[in-house]
Each structure stands twice: as C-alpha cells, then as structure tokens.
TrEMBL record:
Top-level taxon in the UniProt lineage: Eukaryota
Any single Pfam family the record assigns to this protein: CAP59_mtransfer
Organism name: Cucurbitaria berberidis CBS 394.84
Protein name: Glycosyltransferase family 69 protein
PANTHER family (UniProt xref): CHROMOSOME 8, WHOLE GENOME SHOTGUN SEQUENCE, EXPORT PROTEIN (CAP59), PUTATIVE (AFU_ORTHOLOGUE AFUA_7G05020)-RELATED
Disordered, as annotated region: 292-311
Length: 311
C-alpha cells in the first residue's frame, strides 16, 4: 500500500520590501498619472478663471504713447492704425499724447502713418508723427564716428545694432522732453511695437498687479506658442529666456507665476508693448558704449532695479 503524500504549497510574501520590480514601477507610474492629472485640472481651472476676469478698470492716468516703425505698412493698415484710434478714445483724448517715429522705411509705411495722422487729427489727439528722410541704407553708409560703431575681425567698420536702435527709440521721446520742460505731466509711458492688440489688452497691462510695478510688458507671440521677442527679457534671477516655448523661464519664481496665470516677475522686459514710469535720466558714461540691449538697460537704470517688472 502506497504511503499518502501531503502536498505543501508555498506562498510568497508580497510585503512592500519584496514587491516585484514591475509592480513597483506600475505603482509609481500610476501615482505620477494621478498627480499630473490633478495638476492639469488645476491649471485648467486657473486658465478658465483667467479668461473670465472682470473688465479692467477705466483709465484715469495721463499716458504718453510711443512707437517706432520701420517697414510696417501692411500691419499699420490691417490692424495697428485702427487699434491706436480705438485706444486713444478708450484712454481719453485729453489723457494721451501720441509720439511716432518712422525710421527710413522703403515700403509704404510713411503713407500709412499719414493716414493715421489724418484720423488722429479728426479726433483732435495731441501727437507728433515724424517721418525720417534718411533711409536705412544711408544711415549704415554714413561716415563712422567715435561712438556707435565697431570694427569687425575682417577690419571693416560697421554700425552697432544697439546704439542704432537706441537712437531711433530716443527720437520717440524727444516730444516728452519738450512737454516735461513745458510743465506737462504724464503718469506712464506706453510703448507699442508692431503688434496686433486691443484696447482691453492695454487696460489690463496698465492694471498689472494693481498698478504696483516698475514696468509691465505683454508677452508677444509670432506663431503661438512661440514667444517672439526674447531679446530683452531676463527672468527674476536675471537669466535669458530658457526657450521660446513653455516653460519659457529658467527661474522658479518666474515659472511658478506663469504657470498660474499671474504677473511674471522679471528683471527686464520690452516685448510687444510695455508700460513704465516716464523717467528721463541723463546717459551715464558707462553706457556710451553699450554692449546690451537698450531695452534691458532701461530697467537696469530704474530706481527700483530689483526684479519688480512683470511680463
């Protein structure tokens, strides 16, 4: 007679310390998906809240509107002229002065600005629209002087880009010097680049952080989501833009604010449009040979030179 056998079954212990690697990875992946989903939902809710804000407050400040144009006839006629006409009426004709400088365009920009001048005349807007008779080619071909030029490795003398741009922008502010000397006061400067914008965009920009800022700039996009004008942008830590797409900024403070649709603290900005205090400071000797953007140097010379700008 055969002996009976007892079958013994061994059970593995699945304590946390002895989980198979594949199971642990699946759990970690599941936790990541849950956390990321909650994060995305949070961002979605914040985005909806940002898109459903109350209308910005009406303007009660005196605004000096500045712009510099070169070869922008198409944009002027399609959007910009109409947007400026609507903007001055929204801000209040009595509250604005418009200063535009055209720098040697070779398209139809001059005629497009004459059309805007005619419209602003009908609205009785105080303004200065200067059309330069010096072409871009003539400016580059003129005799080099001590400042604003650089010798290249091949021995040629060429016009520095930054002094050239700064000179053109300074032309826009010459009326401000005259008006200030005559006793006129402006609360803010609004600089408009060659962008598509609305009056509401400007009002929201002016109301950034409840008006508590050294400067505020609007992020501009040429082909969304590509951040266009990164030349003068420095994040809250002073770094250049990380990339033209998200997350844009390197510093934690700037990225945290951008992710939550809050005003982004930056060290400097210019971008599609910017607003800042009308400070007319004499040029210091250290800036007669600039090696950085005149737009970023504007903020470095501001009395509140800490990162109080917002994008």
């Amino acid at each position: 007679m055969e002996k009976p056998y007892t079958l013994m079954r061994r059970y593995r212990s699945y304590s946390p310390r002895r989980l198979p690697r594949s199971a642990a990875l699946r759990i970690l992946f599941l936790l990541f998906v849950i956390c990321d989903s909650l994060h995305c939902i949070s961002l979605y809710l914040r985005q909806n809240a940002a898109l459903n804000l109350e209308p910005p407050p009406r303007n009660a400040k005196r605004i000096y509107i500045a712009a510099q144009h070169w070869n922008t006839a198409r944009l002027l006629r399609s959007d910009w002229n109409a947007a400026v006409s609507a903007l001055v009426q929204e801000l209040g004709i009595e509250n604005v002065f418009v200063s535009i400088y055209e720098s040697g365009s070779y398209d139809d920009t001059k005629d497009a600005l004459r059309e805007l001048d005619f419209t602003l005349e009908g609205l009785q807007v105080k303004r200065s629209i200067v059309l330069s008779n010096i072409s871009h080619a003539e400016e580059i071909a003129r005799q080099p002087t001590e400042h604003g030029w650089i010798k290249t490795l091949d021995g040629e003398t060429r016009l520095r880009r930054i002094p050239f741009l700064a000179t053109a922008r300074n032309e826009v502010f010459k009326p401000l010097e005259r008006l200030t000397a005559a006793g006129e006061h402006f609360d803010m400067i609004l600089f408009l680049n060659d962008i598509v914008f609305s009056s509401e965009d400007v009002l929201r920009l002016l109301d950034t952080n409840g008006g508590d800022y050294a400067a505020a700039c609007a992020m501009d996009f040429s082909k969304p989501p590509y951040f266009y004008d990164t030349f003068a942008v420095r994040d809250s830590s002073g770094h250049e833009a990380l990339m033209q797409t998200w997350p844009y900024f390197r510093s934690y403070a700037s990225r945290y604010a951008a992710e939550r649709f809050l005003p982004v603290p930056v060290a400097s900005c210019w971008n599609g449009m910017g607003t800042f205090l009308p400070l007319l400071c004499p040029l210091s000797p250290s800036l007669t040979r600039p090696f950085a953007s005149e737009a970023s140097q504007t903020h470095s010379r501001h009395p509140t030179s800490r990162p109080q700008s917002a994008a």
